[in-house]
């Protein structure tokens, strides 16, 4: 309808729209399906084919680790190797 056109819609926000609940999502895999149909003005008109769309599988659950946390371990190992290398270099002098 025109009241929902060009509006942002959040899936799983827990709000009620007219008589339909937008229930919160729980952990798991989801697919979002959207079907748009045009209402015919008269019964004699043939309704156009509905527009159908389905999303890829969405995973809802704990947030993945951030990229800077993933690099912390290799960076620490590299610093240790550099420190050992510097200590070895100065011990040979």
Automatic annotation (TrEMBL):
Q: What is this protein called?
A: Uncharacterized protein
| Keywords in alphabetical order | Membrane, Transmembrane, Transmembrane helix
Q: Where are the transmembrane segments?
A: 71-90
Please give the organism.
Bracon brevicornis
């Amino acid at each position: 309808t025109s009241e929902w056109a060009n509006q942002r819609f959040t899936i799983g926000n827990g709000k009620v729209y007219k008589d339909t609940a937008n229930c919160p999502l729980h952990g798991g895999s989801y697919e979002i399906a959207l079907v748009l149909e045009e209402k015919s003005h008269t019964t004699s008109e043939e309704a156009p084919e509905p527009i159908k769309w389905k999303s890829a599988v969405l995973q809802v659950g704990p947030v993945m680790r951030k990229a800077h946390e993933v690099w912390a371990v290799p960076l620490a190992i590299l610093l240790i190797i550099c420190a050992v290398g510097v200590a070895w270099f100065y011990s040979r002098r």
